[in-house]
Amino acid sequence: MEQFFQTIKPALDSLLAVVLTTVFSYIGIEVKRLYRQFVDGEDKKEIIDSTVRYVEQVYGELKGPEKLSKALERAGQLLEDKGIEVTQDELRTLIEAAVHGLEKGYAGA
């Protein structure tokens, strides 16, 4: 029996190495994905907030729909330049939320 285990031990060691490598690779990929998701979310928020302030300052004389168009265009380009994917609906929602936050800030001042 001992000879049998000595015979298969190298194969078991190789199998264990493959299994552990696979498990740790999967864990690494998931950690990277979650980190990227968090960082992208923070980057989106910062870009959207700064874009809303920029559009308000530069295009203050424009009406709501025109400002929204400028904000969508600018934020979309900045996010694309950073390699962050965002749908038009998500972008519009984030901009509207940032505008609401900006307006609340004005009302509280």
Notes on the protein architecture:
- There is one protein chain.
- The N and C termini lie far apart (83 Å).
- The protein has helices at 2-58, 64-81, 88-108.
- The chain contains 3 helices and no strands.
- The longest helix is centred in the first third of the chain and has 57 residues, at 2-58.
- It is rod-shaped and about 85 Å long.
- Helix 1 (2-58) crosses helix 3 (88-108).
- It is mainly alpha-helical.
Task: Map the helices and strands.
Layout: H1 2-58, H2 64-81, H3 88-108
Helix pairs in contact: 1-2, 1-3, 2-3
> Percent of residues in helical segments?
over 70%
State the total count of DSSP E strands: 0
Structural class: mainly alpha
Unreliable residue runs: none
Number of helices: 3
Biggest sheet record: none
Query: What is the residue-averaged pLDDT?
Result: 86
Shape, please?
A: rod-shaped
Oligomer: single chain
- Percent of residues in β-strands: under 5%
Q: Kindly provide the radius of gyration, computed on alpha-carbon positions and rounded to a whole number of angstroms.
A: 26 Å
Order of helices and strands: HHH
Could you tell me how far the N terminus lies from the C terminus, measured between alpha carbons in angstroms?
Answer: 83 Å
